[in-house]
Amino acid sequence: MQVYDLPDPRGYFGPYGGVFVAETLMQALEELKLAYEHYRFDPEFQAEFTYDLKHYVGRASPVYYAKRWSEQLGGARIYLKREDLNHTGAHKINNTIGQALLAKRMGKKRVIAETGAGQHGVASATVAARMGMECVVYMGSEDVKRQSPNVFRMKMLGATVVPVESGSKTLKDALNEAMRDWVTNVDSTFYIIGTVAGPHPYPMMVRDFQSVIGHEALAQMPALTGRQPDAIIACVGGGSNAMGIFYPYLGLQDVRLIGVEAAGLGLASGKHAAPLNAGTPGVLHGNRTYLMQDENGQIIETHSISAGLDYPGVGPEHAWLKDSGRAEYVAVTDQEALEAFHDLCRFEGIIPALESSHALAHAAKIAPTMHRDQILLVNLSGRGDKDINTVAALSGITL
Amino acid sequence: MSRIATCFAHLKQQNKKALIPFFTAGDPTPSKTVPLMHAMVTAGADIIELGVPFSDPMADGPTIQRSSERALENHVGLKDILGMVQQFRQDNKTTPVVLMGYANPIEAMGYEKFAQQAQAAGVDGVLTVDYPPEECTDFLECLAQHNLDPIFLLAPTTVDARIAAVARAARGFVYYVSLKGVTGSANLDLRAVQTRLSELRRHIQLPIGVGFGIRDGAMAKAMAEFSDAVVIGSRIVQEIENASPETVVARVETLVKSIRTAMDS
Ligand SMILES: Cc1ncc(COP(=O)(O)O)c(C=O)c1O
User: Fold this and answer.
1) Contact B122, B88 (CB under 8 A)
2) B180, A283: Cβ pair inside 8 Å?
3) Is B49 a catalytic residue?
4) What is the pLDDT along chain B (265 residues), one digit of tens a residue?
5) Is residue A1 exposed (0-12), middle (13-18) or buried (19+ Cβ within 10 Å)?
6) What tens digit of pLDDT does each residue of A219-263 get?
7) Ligand 1 binding site (Cβ under 6 Å of any ligand atom)
8) Among A30, A22, A18, A33, which Cα is nearest to A288's?
9) Do B108 and A10 touch (CB under 8 A)?
10) Subunit contact A183:B181, Cβ cutoff 8 A
11) What ipTM was predicted for this assembly?
């Protein structure tokens, strides 16, 4: 079997990835690459990272057998990797801890971040508070509205939240604005990107920091069930929680890897956020990957009930895993995600994030077609407290 | 000799510096683009930098972002813009036209098709903000085959090793970004730019243009003292934004003329 050692030194996963940025940022990315290459295998850095993940984040996150829900669905047994139990409520903190440790070593006193659902913004504000760094978070004004609890959390943590009014006023526009800030303040500022997208080395670096999820699961699943799962299911916005759990499993060919994109109102409606299912390759936000675009190469507006999946691109490694066939990518509608959201609340007493509910919904679809001896592992990437306004509004309730 | 090289050679003889106005094609409306180009030439522009609108202009400040949005509301795409250049060329065979934009519209059209059609339309140079030379080897080959000059940016942050690499890939002229920031920023440091340009000249034989943050004739004149060309973008786009459809061409002509006069004084 061939050893998987992507990306290549230029940041490519097959034809995807690279460093497509304006000249002003090239040197900053080179410095980041060198710093990360140095600390990636530095025992002291890794020890500090591991210590923080254990004592600050609360890792390892448990794997939980959703017995009642599995029995209700009939078929495969569904296990949940409980990233929702992390400090700050999602997988995002794994990455921000890693990048903040790097920022500190690079002597940066100011961090910036983009956020959609607000989970990455909260996770960035959290690590900045802890390290005494200034933190500015860019967030589409549309998302500021629908994720207001997280906006308040960021402010309490001392961050400045800047609502972005340009374009579609969602995650992609927040990313554009963060890039503009970075170009302007490149000497003092560390840009904490929240997913496995952006220019090299971000996709690789964020994947590495998030792969703690998959490494834990590799040990937990045999201990709990006697073997590895038949399939792993994770939602894909930019793709960081999915890469985090997939990566350590890439060499285990018997384990199916299934990424779930947001089908919004349905793939046929055009109102979705599923570039791997319905997009074409192009260049955006520093890398070549699958994008939602029109025939002129303009990025088109996306739609998803979940702010964290409402993004027209996807990390370049997922683009490669799709083309190479190692992972499969499906899509789940708003409605299906909502049903799974409510089911997990009622059957398991767990309120999942709307993002994670997409992965749950796909599990609910395929579990009944599988045998009782088969095992699905779903990455429960975050908890749903932040989504109560959205869900209440859909049920006609004002909080 | 290419139109861009001819243009700079000609200016050198006259001991003048190039004035390069920028605006976004399709802003305020598609029908004004060609008249605006001609008016700029009449007012003393030497090269025209025509912006290709993109939905996600990451290197641009609010002024040019809004112009991009207006152009996109008018459904102006790369193909339409090539048509506009072709129309401009019917009456103007000498003024170089440089397209400036982002990679994805070109990716969507395809390198070969773009290069072939751009050449046919009469485009002279292409500046793609998010294609550093390392990432566009195949594209550069297509441009070369169709006699199109790749224009590259250099920044205050570019280190020596990269300056040399950019210089090797560049044709026509090199565009020095005069500040750390997006287009339309206001923190320009004249002395720093001057020092930097003399460093750049050690690696670069091509003419060097300076842009980002140049807002008036006085600033343009100061920059022209030590550069070969001055690019003015946000200030012109702002004039377009503030004008009515009836006055826009005349107002832009007056503005460009005032900058030209200041530069030559
Ligand atoms: C809980 C949760 N899951 C998933 C995502 C999507 O991001 P990614 O695909 O990078 O994991 C987000 C993003 O905000 C999130 O908050």
Assistant:
1) yes
2) no
3) yes
4) 899 999 999 999 999 999 999 999 999 999 999 999 999 999 999 999 999 999 999 999 999 999 999 999 999 999 999 999 999 999 999 999 999 999 999 999 999 999 999 999 999 999 999 999 999 999 999 999 999 999 999 999 999 999 999 999 999 999 999 989 998 888 788 999 999 999 999 999 999 999 999 999 999 999 999 999 999 999 999 999 999 999 999 999 999 999 999 999 9
5) exposed
6) 999 999 999 999 999 999 999 999 999 999 999 999 999 999 999
7) A 90, 116-117, 119-120, 195, 235-242, 308-309, 353, 355-356, 381-382
8) A18
9) no
10) yes
11) 0.97
CA distances from B53 to A256, B50, B69, B111 (A): 42, 9, 7, 18
Q: How far apart are the first and last CA of chain B?
A: 30
Written as one letter, the residue type at A38 is H
The 10 Å CB-count burial string (b at 16+, else e) for A97-135 is bbbbbbbbeeebebbbbbbbbbbbbbbbbbbbeeeebeb
Nearest alpha-carbon partner for A202 in A99, A281, A80: A99
Neighbours of B5 (CB within 10 A): 17
The residues facing A161 across adjacent strands are A137
DSSP structure class, residue A273:
B
Give the mean pLDDT of A372-376: 98
> B17, B263 in Cβ contact below 8 A?
yes
Q: What is the phi-psi region of residue B26: left when phi exceeds 0, alpha when psi lies from -120 to 50, beta otherwise?
A: left
CA A3 to chain centre: 25
Report the residue from A19, A28, A180 with minimal CB separation from B58: A180
Which residue range forms the structural domain that includes residue B69?
Answer: 3-264
- Give the integer Cα–Cα distance in Å for B259 and B218: 8
Q: Nearest-CA neighbor of A202 among A76, A313, A51? A: A313
Radius of gyration of chain B (CA): 17
d(CA B3, CA A394): 60
Which tokens go with A263? Answer: 């089908």
CA distances from A88 to A118, A122, A197, A288, B223 (A): 11, 7, 22, 31, 51
* Pairing label, strands B174-177, A327-333: unpaired
Q: Which atom of ligand 1 is nearest to the CA of A236?
A: 9
Which residues of chain A form beta strands (DSSP E)?
12-13, 16-20, 63-65, 77-82, 110-115, 134-140, 160-164, 189-192, 231-235, 256-264, 280-284, 286-291, 327-333, 375-380
> In ligand 1, which atom is closest to the CA atom of A116?
14
Q: Which of A336, A321, A165, A350 is nearest to A243 (CA)?
A: A321
User: What is the A195 CA–ligand 1 centroid distance (Å)?
Assistant: 8
Contact by Cβ (8 Å): A340, A353: no
Q: Is A199 on the interface with B (CB under 8 A)?
A: no
Stretch (H or E) spanning B22: strand B18-24
Q: What is the rounded radius of gyration, in angstroms, for the C-alpha atoms of chain A? A: 19
The CATH number linked to B232 is: 3.20.20.70
Residues of A in contact with B166 (CB under 8 A): 23
Q: What is the pTM of this model?
A: 0.97
Q: Please state the domain count of chain B.
A: 1
B209 — alpha (psi -120 to 50), left (phi > 0) or beta? Answer: beta
Distance A153 CA to ligand 1 centre (A): 17
B16, amino acid identity: K
Total beta-carbon pairs less than 8 A apart between chain A and chain B: 124
